[in-house]
Amino acid sequence: MNQTHRILCIGVLVRFLLPTLFPSIPFKLSTVVELATPINSYTSLQEAFFYLQHSINPYDGGVNHHPPLLVAFFGLFKSQLPDSVFLTACNLLYSVVDVIIALRLASLNRWYNARVSKKTGEPVAPLSDALMVSFYLFNPLIILTNLSHCTLVFSQLFIIESLHQLTSNTNLARAMVSLGIATYLSGSPVLMVVPVLALAYVSLPKHKWENVYIQGTVVFFMTCGLLVFISAIWTSSVAFLDQCYGVIIRFDKIQPNVGLWWYFFTEMFDFFTPFYIGVFNLFSMIFIVPLTIRFFEYEDKDPKKASVKTGDAFLAVYLCYVWMSFLKSYPTVGDFGLAISLAPIFAATVLPYCKLVYITALTLLVCLILSPIFYYCWIVLGNGNSNFFYSINLVWGGVHILVLIDFTWGQLIREYCQEHDISPEQRHVIRLTQL
Amino acid sequence: MIHQVIALIALICGIHANNNFYNESLSLTPLARNNLLANFNFEIKSLPKHLSYYNESNDKDSIADASHYTYFPRSIGPLLEKTNTRELHLRFAQGWWDSESWGSLPVNGSKSGGTGVEVWAVIEAPTSKEALKSWSKLAVSLSAFFCASLNFIDESITTFPINAFNPDTSSFSADPANKLFLLRAAMPSEPICTENLTPFIKLLPTRGKAGISSLLDGHRVFDSLWNSMSIDIQTECDDESEACNFKMDQSISVIVDVMRSLRKKENGPIPKPVEGDKLQCDKSRGYSVWQCFPLGLPTEITYSLRDVFGRPINGGPFSSQGVPVTVNFKAEGWDISFKDGMNKVVSLSENDSTYTILGDDEVNIDFKASDSSKTVGLQTAPLHASRSLTGYSQDKGGFRVVFENPGDSAISFVYFESLPWFIRLYLSTMKATSKGQTGTYQEVDSSEYVTLSHYQPAIDRKRPSHMELLVTVPAKETLTLHYEFDKSLLLYAEYPPDANHGFSVEPAVITVLDTNQKKVYELRTTSSLVVLPTPDFSMPYNVIILTGTVISLAFGSLYNLLIKDVITEEEFEKFAAQSKLRKLRAKIKSLKSFLKSK
């Protein structure tokens, strides 16, 4: 048993024992606005089981927004197992999901750093597996999200799985199927298709661009279509489309969360709402393609040309993920939690050039401390109002912006250094700017 | 004078005054603690007529012909025909019925409403969409008619009850292809007052000028501990002749605090502090200038109907028609006598407790009690129910419903609850506790007591949740149900002006069934006031500006980073030196130094 295994064991124990010994933990946590939203909370999943048990259509109402196959998957166990066994099985399932994600992150880390070493010709030392795994498993945001049994973790599992399949397994079809499932589960990962395909282009060994893009897109949409089709057959209607994805597009399940939109649409004048719904949906995808193109890894026949060294498709995936987490309709801290746990992958590449890490960390800390306090003041004590909580939402958005610009600028410095063959000693002295 | 006019109208209509088309009756019951329960009942029938399904295209003449209404209010009849309403029930109620000390509701609760206004109707229509159309038409008309905000009834508060309001009669539909739809809505925050009573009285052929309706003075009716007005209209059809007539039951029940009425009569409407020498103190306990333990309620009291309602009964409804007035009392404590205009006095006895008022003279009733605590009382209620809110935060809460069965046999009933959409109910959280003979609460499996006979979850802004539970409570047991909900945030414009006052949740309706599943008793819980989270109402522009700032900050900084060239600062200085602005500045500088040197 090596160190990684020991860390995995502790991680599992925290996730499995706590909710098994205190079964009320997931139910209590799933009502915390920072951890779960009506779209992905465990409480509404329970309600969906209740509807199934009493043969009520789970999509004829405003409580359940989980996709049908997820409900069916859980419902199957729910109906077969006694209640206490089912809850324990759930705890186990969530623990296993997190372990898989942690292991995948470790392998992504190895792959990325090996690739960078090979590409640039300068060996970069990645963080050890044990560190990578513990960055994920002991990330408090991830632990809380997992304990709240928010269904977001499944969506994250499939996003990470998709990246893993592309990189370590170099299997495009499986990767796109995974991403399709992630999209089916929570809608917004559809934005990740673009950077993931760009990553596929560089990570697959022998490839033609037509094959990668066309195959990838086709497999992705086939998966989504198939899942939707099975769901439609299972619920014998298409009402779930509106309940699961319409809600995401329309921003209309108004409940406080860490995102920017709930308060915006609460306060918005009726007649402007459709306009802003359109604008914000566009805005949420506006930087996906630019980021992907800017950090695209071009190939050149001449390996000595400087531009071969630049670009970083994996960073593009990461930045797109942060962008998605920033502008999601119903974000939780778990979305950003995964972004934090992914960041150490760049420990030897981009992170050394990041100048705002300290400020970002402090801002994040302020958010995490003040958000529950302000919410409590508003909702329970009544001595604060919604503006307090909203202000923290804005700062939360600010944290995303800081991460985005810090990583982007870090990568730009890195590219400059690579292009101009600046010696490692010079790299941290050089002062760059933009024109 | 008015009597002659009414009699004349009756004659013109060609109906004998003593008739089957109009009846009224009054029953009075003194209750413990010097309260008086008064039940006013009015029955009106229209003449039989062939009823057809009305829609925009078909004949309007059938409605224009109004000869069959006679006593039946001409204002309501065409409305029913135009909206194809086969049954209409309206309830206006206020106050809290204390079932533990008063007993069961009058007429087994079938005429009593919950707090606010409630309306349900059976509407004939080919589809539920058509039914909803007629329903909103009906609601808007009734709103204007009864001065209540029934016009706010829309899809978002309308339910189609299944077991709860079993309509007892009339499965009549004019067109056999059509279906009958039962629709219901309630407005719990509607204040009931005189402006609702006036149109109610106007429906009566006596217009409140004669008969028992002359007692109905708004100031007195609404100055009661509890009051409930009801209107029930049904369509009665003869299968052979295929002719139908409307039958309307109107009733008002009030519980009057007699002591308060007497005090008001003495002191006027504004309460005054009791003067020192008039204080009734218990002298056996500590008693001094500074100390006074008040005595209990007086049991030896005398009052008349005029004291309670402000005026006597203005004779029978029509000159030749009498009105029976029943007083339920105990002879050993009470002496009840009727006094008419000629000062003729008739005393009632316990066995013969009904007096029929005839003629046009005013009639007053004197109540004399040597011991007013001796009352016949009302039957014990078969079920006590109460519903309360749990939780303390604005974003979630729960309902705790307590059913107490005081009887000696198990009781089963339908629990109907419709909650507004902004309450996101989690029925999976339902827990039951029961207090049996042992007197301690124990958690029990809710499925042993409760079956979910119907549940339809709410849809945001479109449909309320609609739950019907079939509950059985064993003898002498108390069952408590608890379930939780989340409260949704509304949009800025959806909040009423007094948003922090809270939102009323309509009373739950409980229909007690006997072994044959027939309705035997009906009661309603109180309404509940739910406080929702509120945004800051002064913020719209600020929020647009601040959110806009954050997203433009994100856009601007990323956009710059992605499209600009990366250069070193030295290079930047060089480029900057060549810029026009720099050149201009350099020129100014040189000019300055040039001027200085001069």
UniProtKB/TrEMBL annotation, chain A:
It holds the Pfam family PIG-U. Keywords: Endoplasmic reticulum, GPI-anchor biosynthesis, Membrane, Signal, Transmembrane, Transmembrane helix. GO terms for biological process: attachment of GPI anchor to protein; GPI anchor biosynthetic process. Residues 1-19 form the signal peptide. GO terms for cellular component: GPI-anchor transamidase complex. The chain crosses the membrane at residues 85-106, 136-159, 179-200, 212-234, 271-293, 313-330, 361-381, 387-405. It is a multi-pass membrane protein. Pathway: Glycolipid biosynthesis; glycosylphosphatidylinositol-anchor biosynthesis. InterPro entries: PIG-U (IPR009600). It is found in: Endoplasmic reticulum membrane. Belongs to the PIGU family. PANTHER family: GPI TRANSAMIDASE COMPONENT PIG-U, PHOSPHATIDYLINOSITOL GLYCAN ANCHOR BIOSYNTHESIS CLASS U PROTEIN. This is PIG-U-domain-containing protein.
UniProtKB/TrEMBL annotation, chain B:
GO terms for biological process: attachment of GPI anchor to protein. The chain crosses the membrane at residues 541-562. GO terms for cellular component: GPI-anchor transamidase complex. Keywords: Membrane, Signal, Transmembrane, Transmembrane helix. Residues 1-17 form the signal peptide. This is Gpi16 subunit, GPI transamidase component.
